[in-house]
């Protein structure tokens, strides 16, 4: 398939926006611009990878205002820290979703063939760039964990790391005191989901068994 040129991509975006504008205005959702919805009202936060193949809105059919989304390299959540010398873009977005929007669910949405996790596992070979290496360093112990499992194929090693990163992000979410407090009170539920791109299979992390299990049936 021929790759689209930058001009073709931007024209596709403009055409898509025109179609979306017509669809929403014609279906009665003009209330979005008339002030009938003065603030976001969503019950879920999805923390997903920046990978263009795993857009939560497209994959799960979300409409405008239905989900609050954070996307970054390898769908990582940093641990809670308040060091004023460090930028906290992800943590700030999480705080807004939990404390302002009062979401009732947080889903860490990881996926197969993740370039970020592949970079984490091969950092010594390819270097860490100006920013990627520092960002991925919060998950550096995952690489040591995976390297400690004998007999893994290359594909199995990457998949294990991808799933361990989801588990680590769930652990880091619970270092935020206001997330932990809401979860303990039953006001917030945390989920870890893993999407296999080539088979369109979806698994969820079961904290009881410590395994990822299928959560999609035909």
Describe this structure in words.
This protein has 218 residues and is of the alpha/beta class. It has 2 domains: 1-38; 39-214, Beta-carbonic Anhydrase, Chain A (3-Layer(aba) Sandwich). The protein has helices at residues 6-26, 31-34, 56-60, 89-100, 115-121, 123-126, 132-136, 140-147, 154-173, 177-184; strands at residues 44-49, 68-72, 105-111, 189-196, 201-206, 211-214. It has a 6-stranded mixed beta sheet with strand order 2-1-3-4-5-6, with helices on one face. The two termini are 30 Å apart.
Count all strands and give the number: 6
* Cα end-to-end separation: 30 Å
Largest sheet: 6 strands, mixed
Strand order of the largest sheet: 2-1-3-4-5-6
Instruction: List the uncertain runs.
Output: none
CATH superfamily of the largest domain: Carbonic anhydrase
Order of secondary-structure elements: HHEHEHEHHHHHHEEE
CATH architecture of the largest domain: 3-Layer(aba) Sandwich
User: How many domains comprise the coordinates?
Assistant: 2
Q: What is the CATH C level class of the largest domain, in words?
A: Alpha Beta
CATH topology of the largest domain: Beta-carbonic Anhydrase, Chain A
Give helix % range: 40-55%
Mean pLDDT: 87
Specify the overall morphology. Answer: globular
Query: Structural class from helices and strands?
Result: alpha/beta
Number of helices: 10
Q: Beta-strand level of the residues, as a percent range?
A: 15-25%
